[in-house]
Amino acid sequence: MISAVVINWNGRAHLERCLPALLAQEPPPDEVVLVDNHSSDGSREYCAEHFPSVRILDTGANLGPAEARDRGARAVRGETLLFLDNDVELLPGALAELRGVLDEDRRIGMVQARSLCEGDNAVVHYDHSDLHFLGTLVLHNWFRPRSEVTDPDGPVGAVIALCLLVRRRAYFAAGGFDRRLFILYEDNDLSWRMRMHGWQLRLAPRALVRHFAGTAGLSFRSPDAKYAGRRFYLHCRNRWLVLLRNAQLRTLILTAPSQLLYALVYTLFAASRGGLLPALRGHGAALLAVPSRLWMRRIQRRRKVGDRDLLSGDPMTPNPGLADRGAKAWLRCFVDGFCALNWKLVRGLCG
Asked: Are residues 191 and 310 in the same domain?
């Protein structure tokens, strides 16, 4: 039984594409719940009128996608969960492709769809990734023409949360999405925990979806777009929170030079975009959260795979046009080279 959990906040226009495409899948999900973060744009009323088979769960406030997904997972009955963002449209056959990959191996805990760009379906937006030891993602096939993409041969390092098919028991054994993250890094976090517990992650390259506008005020689509202060805050805070919960202590200590360098460079980037104070508040919030995150490290007791087999030191993935030339490009290459050297020297000493 597949239960679909669609998360929404003021996305009525997106639901007009998302829900029909979901319900038209062959076969369709056995159960669909719309977890609505208390939208004010008539989303719940629209869904109730046009899609009576969809159950609506109103969270009562904008709790963010991480908690919305987790609440939805706890409210449905299926042994397999489809997490779907409201700005994602499944193309025909996508759900069957996801299910086919998940059924290939009982060790597979989570499968991601291949996301295409809204304005050009010949270009991949999101695909599979690797988990960098900094807690960030190394994206593959990022804004790459579909004619040039390469498909992974086996497990992948991390997934993007916009369209995921997940085994229920694997999801809850890993602790589910961390509601404290609100948005940003919540998929990095879940990928890390599922893999440390021995589950495989996969990409279903023929499960195609269209990805539309993203989250207002937070999503970033072009180098000319304005970065919201909230994004700087969440990026700085959540990266540390993910590391504090998931990284082995040896990994944190041995990679401390890179962790601090990255934090400094990102803070300088935030300052150049008018976001210095939100970035500093994010670092401060992470520092204040250290006691609670150390308590959450009980998740390490069930670890089966060490960080040296989970993490990567490959070059990070910048947004297109953001640091392609000049001093910014030089600085990006310096940080990548420093991190790669740090990881090469210490990886064998990590757990």
From this structure: no
